Amino acid sequence: MEIAIITLYMLVLSVLGLYGFHRGHLLYLYWRHRKEAHVAPGRFEELPRVTVQLPMFNEMYVAERLMESVAALDYPKDKLEIQVLDDSTDETTEIARKKSEELVARGFDVTFRHRDNRKGYKAGALEEGLHEAKGDYVMVFDADFVPTPSIIRDLIDHFTDPKVGMVQARWGHINRDYSLLTRVQSMMLDGHFVIEHIARNRSGRFFNFNGTAGIWRRSTIVDAGGWEHDTLTEDMDLSFRAQLRGWKFVYVPTALAPAEIPCEMNSFKGQQFRWAKGSAQTTKKLIWTVIRADLPLKVKIECLFHLTNNFAYLFLVILAALQLPNMLMRQRMDSPELLLLDVPLFFSTCISIIIFYLTTHQALYGDLRSAVKRLPVMMAVSIGLSINNARAVLEGLVGVQSEFVRTPKHGVEQNRDGWVKKRYKAGAATISTYLEILFGLYIVGTIGLAIFMGAWVSIPFLVLFMVGFLYVGTLSLYQLR
Q1: 237 in catalytic set
Q2: Topology annotation, domain 40-264
Q3: What is the side-by-side order of every strand in the sheet holding 50-56?
Q4: Catalytic residue among 87, 144, 154, 342
Q5: What is the pTM of this model?
Q6: Which residues are CB-contacts of 54 (< 8 A; sequence separation ≥ 6)?
Q7: Could you tell me the residue ranges of all domains in the chain?
Q8: Catalytic pick from 86, 154, 235, 342?
Q9: What is the largest CA-CA distance in the chain?
Q10: Is 87 one of the catalytic residues?
Q11: pLDDT tens track for 398-412
């Protein structure tokens, strides 16, 4: 039993170390290619017609804000079509309908579509809207976004290259400084949009459309098979299918689309659950297609890491569960130093995370001091999310079906804005919430044993696990009240 536990423990650490090495490789690619920004090969002599699709489901606090920001886009009215794709079951429908009528009166080409069913969820709404779209190019904005006026002009000229199928802008954060939770989320998202996207795109690897704040060539969507709703990440699914068909994607980090970050833990966990489960479903759907595809080996390897990135949460949960037995075996072994092999593995993984996010923060904001303060909390929260996201990955792999649960939006921008009394809330506590608290208490006991044994090197890592699980679990329960 001891040999089996030690073997499993080292195997789990090795897998996590491999994902840490991959993060380090992305960082290397970023540094190597960070100055090689994509430049549009030309300019349209006459601007093309663009259809802006606005999928909505119960967005009463942000629907009007989104529609007004789209109306403020710096693009000719006669070249701009706005599709409001509403699946709502509350006052959002009337709000969006009235705003659509107002915009029409102001000279905008606005189509309001309301569905009485959510067939296909967001993907279904986008696909139905695409059939009637007037534009050869289609831009999507989720309801929590407030795009900058120049965003279409910042992106559209890249389509003068006939091989370009999608151009993605960078997300910004309206309420980044609202709370500790929103600051942590912004740090996570910034790492994705600064390091990962730039590294992948400029080194010739696949990267994905993020579901919003990007423009598609309409013919690319059709050629790739259209929007499909058999996964919860229709954006990732279509992105891989399109790139497998040979279409080029372009990322433009200077084009900014600010958005509202979830200010409540359960909403954040629900969003993370959907992304993790959808990526597992997409992996299950496309992994063999990627493996068999006629692609360079470096592209295939990156695709496999990209698709399976959330699988690391499964190993993180196993690692947390093995902490106490690992500590007990160290106490019983004649040569406990044999197990100290975990220290360099932990250290190398943590170092890659630290450099990854400090580099991101420096590139965007330049204030490393605040990043250093925030980084341990971000690492702890990532660990605390592991049970929630591991369950999502397992459900995606075994085929458990669930509806597309949209992230509640409250129109929160300033610190004085409240969300507690607003209507939209995440659901009831799940088993994951209680497991997070139990795991946190379990790690507390492990820390006590580590102190008793004098295993001081392990304690900083254990504290990250303890803080992460207890923070995520207790905040989830508290905010549900």
Answers
A1: no
A2: Spore Coat Polysaccharide Biosynthesis Protein SpsA; Chain A (3.90.550)
A3: 109-114, 80-86, 50-56, 137-140, 214-217, 164-173, 248-259
A4: 87
A5: 0.94
A6: 66, 67, 70, 82, 83, 84, 85, 140, 141, 143
A7: 2-30+309-480, 40-264
A8: 235
A9: 82
A10: yes
A11: 999 888 888 888 888
